[in-house]
Every structure is written in structure tokens, then in C-alpha cells.
Amino acid sequence: MLRVTGPSSTRINVGDGLLRDETVRTGLDSATRLVMADSTNLSLGPNASLKLDRTVFDDEHHYREVAVRMTSGAFRFVTGQSDKAAYKITTPLATIGVRGTTLDILSQRGQTIVNLQEGAASVCTTSFDCIQLTRPGDTAIITAGGAGGRSTIKKSNTPPWTFAATCSAAAGLCSKTQYADATPAIVDDGSDPTGMLCGR
Predict the structure, then answer these.
(1) 176-107-66-199 Cα dihedral, nearest 10 degrees
(2) How far is the first Cα of the chain from the last one, in angstroms, to the nearest whole number?
(3) pTM score, whole prediction
(4) What angle do CA 50, 56, 60 make, to 5 degrees?
(5) Which end of the chain is less crowded, N or C, counting CB atoms within 10 A of the terminal residue's CB?
(6) How confident is the model over 123-155, as pLDDT tens digits?
(7) How far is the C-alpha of 154 from the C-alpha of 160, rounded, in Å?
């Protein structure tokens, strides 16, 4: 897994802290899990990229706001201890609001798929067409419009994709019983630690 800063990148090791505004990327043969300070778990499949856009703490274990941009790849997002309204997830085609949720998200060129595993979520296109996911298996499929047209969104109860294959390929990546309670060291250097890496 790499930490991308401008034109350069550095390797991230298990236990390393991640900071707000950092982009992280997995390789073709890797998968990882980020555990945030409120025990939100964010698993990334191979060749995935995300950016921690914004974090505002209420205290050391709860966020007032946390925004994650999933640029490309496959993800599993499991909410932690913060108020569910604090979470905002975006892809190039969608904005996702969560309510006590486990979500599988696939962000790829021209399409985003959001599959509800547990809880509930609201999925909207960038033009604010929205679908509510309320039952496990509910899936929103957002497809980019051609030649500057509006994206379309549809709901399905037969998901065309889930994160399950990635989970089975990387032991422990999605186990709900093994999520860590991460408390990154707070260093008084002006940085904004948001979580740490648990994975490979």
C-alpha cells in the first residue's frame, strides 16, 4: 500500500498512521484495511485508491465529520462509533450517506455500484437523483451519462457485484469480529491523525 503525496509515493506499513488529505493506493496484488480512530473499518481491494478528505473530531474516539473519497477500486465500509450523520462517502459519480451501515462499493470508470450488506444508506448521483437502500442486498447502480449527459441511477435486489470475493481472497479482511479499536497516538505537531493501517 502506498501513501501518495503529489508526484511522489511512499510505502505504508502495518500500524502506520494516516493523515487527513492523504491519498492511499493498494497494488495489483494487495488488499488492506484501514481502522479509523472511531473504529470505522474501511477495507480496500486490489488496485484501489481513496483520499481522506476531511475529519473533524468531537473527541479522540468520535468524529463530528469524516469525508472519504473513493476514487477507484473495490471497498467495504463499516461504520464505527461516531454519529452516523458524520460520515460522507463520495465517488466520482455518487454521494453516499450512511446510517449504521456495512456497504460494499465499487468505483470504476463510468460506473459506481453500492451494495448494502447491513443497515441503511442513501445513494445520490452528482445531480441529486437519490435511492434509499434499506434491506441487505439492495444495490444502487450509477452509470455515467455519455457526452456530458446526466448520470443515471437504478436500484436492484440482485447485486451484480459484492466485496465477498475480495474477502475470501484475503483472510480477515472483512471479519466483523476482528475489528480493532484503533487509537492513533496524538502528536502535538499540527497533524490530524485519522486512523492506522491494518493489512498488507
Answers:
(1) 40
(2) 7
(3) 0.83
(4) 105
(5) C
(6) 999 999 999 999 999 999 999 987 678 899 999
(7) 12
